[in-house]
Write a structure and sequence with these properties.
By secondary structure, the protein is an alpha/beta fold. It has one domain: P-loop containing nucleotide triphosphate hydrolases (Rossmann fold, 3-Layer(aba) Sandwich). The chain is 42% helix and 10% strand. It has 16 helices and 7 strands. The strands form 2 sheets. Strands 5-4-6-7 form a 4-stranded parallel β-sheet, sandwiched between helices. Helix 1 crosses helix 2 and helix 12 crosses helix 14. The radius of gyration is 20 Å and the shape is globular.
Length: 335
């Protein structure tokens, strides 16, 4: 059985977890696999390319996680605004608990306040840690919607998902930069062209990207009270309206008194790229808490349309063609 700082040893697992780990260890060698963009392998699992660690997380979720009606899941495909959405949702839900001048987001990265579900479901070798999080639990995930158990996704469950999508051209560029930062120095760098080819073929973390987006889009159409679907570009253009929309969806709309106090404006300002990237905690390097990813790695530009500085017209056209084909007759577009 695999052990590392991420995987507990078998001796520390409760009996149910031991069974799930064994099932996962037997499954992984049977799956199609390829090298990840930065480290480790990606496995093709139920149509998506996912690391072994996160496949385990999904299986542990299916086998052991007990959702609550108050659970809120912040869902994204990587590099679509995960850090931003975590910060916004945390601020909206906890707006009455903290003063903006001394807010937790000034001292902690959003991943510490809205923990990564695929990771914490492993913690302590049982559900004790995740069960111990007080309600409402705010959880973040990159898992496709189809990989959640029906007890979380059917209409009898009150837990809610907030999802954000982004133009695939910007997603690819951001993902390539991120992979370049994390890729071990002993490995040859991934060229933009090589990585672009993989992305177009759907071979990227939690890819194919378009399938990930469409899973949540269709769920939001079928169950609008369960899944809120946002576009990164809309949040950049109309942040105040989007924050109000999220609050309404989560059942905590802003009161007239809060509007008069400009609470929405304060949330938008606190969670802005400029504010977040300039917090000391988000300038920490990779040695912080022995993480493979530094807090600063989550902040690059946060812009819309930065792809024009990296992709050739031919590359942009190819991605647009793939996107058009993937979205045909779905009722969704990125514009």
């Amino acid at each position: 059985m695999e052990t590392s700082k991420y995987f507990p040893s078998v001796e520390t697992l409760d009996e149910g977890y031991q069974k799930t780990f064994k099932n996962c260890d037997e499954l992984l060698p049977t799956l199609p696999q390829t090298k990840g963009w930065w480290f480790g392998q990606l496995f093709q699992y139920h149509g998506f390319w996912i690391s072994g660690f996160c496949i385990r997380g999904s299986m542990l979720n299916h086998d052991h996680f007990k959702p609550r009606s108050t659970d809120i899941v912040v869902a994204t495909s990587p590099k679509c605004g995960t850090t931003w959405l975590r910060a916004l949702v945390f601020s909206i839900i906890n707006r009455a608990s903290f003063d903006f001048s001394d807010h937790p987001l000034r001292k902690a990265n959003p991943q510490d306040l809205v923990p990564f579900f695929e990771k914490i479901i492993h913690k302590d070798g049982s559900t004790s840690f995740v069960d111990g999080i007080p309600s409402p639990r705010l959880l973040s995930t990159h898992l496709p919607y189809s990989l959640f158990p029906t007890r979380m996704t059917d209409d009898t469950s009150a837990c809610r998902f907030v999802y954000i999508s982004r133009d695939p051209k910007d997603v690819f560029v951001s993902k390539w930069h991120f992979a370049s930062k994390l890729r071990p120095k002993e490995l040859p760098p991934l060229s933009l062209e090589e990585t672009f080819d993989l992305f177009c073929k759907g071979v990227s973390h939690y890819g194919p990207f378009w399938d990930h987006v469409l899973g949540y889009w269709k769920a939001s159409v079928e169950s609008p009270k369960k899944v809120l679907f946002l576009k990164y570009e809309d949040v950049k253009k109309e942040p105040l309206g989007c924050v109000r929309k999220v609050a309404e969806f989560l059942g905590v709309p802003f009161t007239p008194e809060e509007e008069n106090k400009e609470i929405v404006e304060q949330i938008v300002k606190l969670c802005s790229f400029e504010s977040m990237s300039n917090q000391d905690v988000n300038k920490l390097d990779k040695r912080y808490q022995q993480r493979p990813v530094s807090n600063s790695d989550f902040f690059r530009k946060g812009e819309v349309g930065d792809w024009v500085n990296h992709l050739s017209p031919q590359m942009a056209e190819k991605l647009d063609q793939i996107t058009e084909e993937k979205l045909q007759d779905t009722g969704f577009n990125f514009h």
